[in-house]
Structures are given as structure tokens and as C-alpha cells.
Amino acid sequence: MDTIFTSLSILFPNSLIKQIKKSNYYIDGIHYHTRLKSRPSSGSKYPFNINPGTLAAEFEILLFGEHNWAYIVPIKVLENMYEHPEAYIDNHHPNIRIYTMDAVSGEATYAKGGLKIDFSNYKKYF
């Protein structure tokens, strides 16, 4: 059993979990996009991106290999980050936005000037 499915089974006990694509799952009929990071880029900070596949889901689940928590973020929050006029744009793919997530504090930096958003309200321990 893979790490993502195992983590989802713990986060959503007694729920029907169905994988629909590599990083996409339906859990009790709700569409989730998943991201698993095993190594931080620096300290407790991890790089992520927001792409059209992310935005097709209802929630994004951010998983961290060495931590016993995840962030379950509503896609509307990520849409607002994606649409921000100063959002960081991927150098090779103009339809992808990038951000850095601090897994411990829940702080995500996503736009010029160091604009941040706090994801700590979306943190769920397992």
C-alpha cells in the first residue's frame, strides 16, 4: 500500500476512498488532490505548485513524509493565491503558480513582496 493511500486511510477512517488519477481521490464523494513531500527544501519549508489539475479538485491535501499531520486546504483558498496578480509564476510553465509552505507553522509564501497566507486552520493531525 502506498504512503498517500495509507495517510488518507488514517485521516479519513471508515471512509470510502477511491483513487481516480495519480494524485486525485474521491473520499466519500468529495474530490481531493494530494501532494506528498518527503524532503524540505530548507528547514521545514517545502516547495509546491498550483496547476490546473490542482484547481479541478475541491480540496488539496498536503502531506509531509516525516510529520504526523496534513493540511486539507479548500481549493478556493488556492484559487485566490493562483489568481493574485503578484503570484509567483513557474519559470517554465506560465499556467503554474508556485509557493513555499512551512510545514510546522502553516505559513505559505506565494507572491512578490513575501506575501503569505496562514494554513494553520487547515492542519489535521493523524
Question: What does this molecule look like?
Answer:
The chain is α+β, with helices and mostly antiparallel strands. The chain has one domain: 3-Layer(aba) Sandwich (Trna Endonuclease, Chain: A, domain 1), CATH 3.40.1350. The protein is 17% helix and 42% strand. The protein has 3 helices and 10 strands, in the order H-E-E-E-E-H-E-E-H-E-E-E-E. The strands form 2 sheets. A 6-stranded mixed sheet has the order 1-2-3-5-6-10. A 4-stranded antiparallel sheet has the order 4-7-8-9. Strand 1 and strand 2 form a beta hairpin. The radius of gyration is 14 Å and the shape is globular. The chain starts with a helix and ends with a strand.
Supply the key terms:
single chain; 126 residues; alpha+beta; Trna Endonuclease, Chain: A, domain 1; six-stranded mixed β-sheet; four-stranded antiparallel β-sheet; 10 strands; 17% helix; 42% strand; globular
